[in-house]
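Lab notebook, bench 4. Still working through the backlog of constructs that have no structural model yet. Next entry is a single chain of 249 residues. Request: give me the C-alpha cells for it.
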Amino acid sequence: MSAFVTLLLVVDPVGLVPAFLAATHGLTEQDRRRIAVRSPLIAAQILVTLALCGNWLLRALGIGIAAFQIAGGLLLFGVSYGMIFGDRPHREAREADKALSEHAADIAVFPLAIPLMAGPGAIATTLLLSNAAGATPRLIIVIVTILLVCLLCMLCFRLSSLIARTLGRTGNAVFSRLLGMLLAAYSVQFVLDGLLGGELPQSGPTIRTSVRQQVQRRTGWQGIRGDTSPLKAWALLGLSFRWQLLGLG
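Model written out:
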C-alpha cells in the first residue's frame, strides 16, 4: 500500500491533466484517445524495466541502498517543493509547449511518457521500491503498483476534459499542493531510512537507542546517555571524528 501511495504521489495523474491538454491541443479526438492510451503504456514499460534491473544496476555502479535512499529522498523533496509552491504545473506546461513548438514526432513519448510520467522522481521511486523489495515476490507488488498508477494516468487522460472542468484551476492547484505535502513527508522518511541504515524505528525512545548504538559502534565511545536526542548524538559523532583526526580521541 505504501509503495502505491508513494508512486501515486510522485506521478500525480490528476496533476498531469493540464499538461496533457496542452500537449494535445489542436489534435483530433481520435488522436487524443490514442495518445492517452499509448503514453502511459510507454511510461509503464520504462518503469517496469527499471524495477526489474534496478538491483543489478545499483550493484554494477557500486551504489549502496542507503546512499540511494538519501539521494532519492532529496530528489523527491525537490519534486514535492515544486508541487507545493506551484512550480511543477508551470514547468509541465512549458515542456508540453516546447514539444509542440519543436513539432515532436510523437508527443506520447515526449513530453508525456518522458519526463512527465517516467521522470526523475518516478525513476528514483521505482529504484527505491525495487531495492526494498529485493528478488522476492514483493517485486511483483512493485510491478503491479507501477501498472496501476499508469492505468490511473490513462483514465485521467481519457477523462481529461471532464476533470479540467470539474476541478478548475483553483481545485487543481489545491489538490497538487496537498499531494506535495504528503510527498514531502515520504521523501523525509526515505532520507531518515538512509541515515539510519535502512532500519528506521517508529518510536522516539527507539530512535534514540538506534542512533546511540550506531554512534557507539562506529566510534567505540560509550559517553552517550539513553536520553540523548538523535540530533545531539550525530553532533557528538561528528566531534568524535574530529577528535580522532586530531589524535585526541
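Notes after review: The chain has eleven helices and no strands. Confidence is low (pLDDT under 50) at residues 101-105, 198-204, 241-249. Flag for follow-up if needed.
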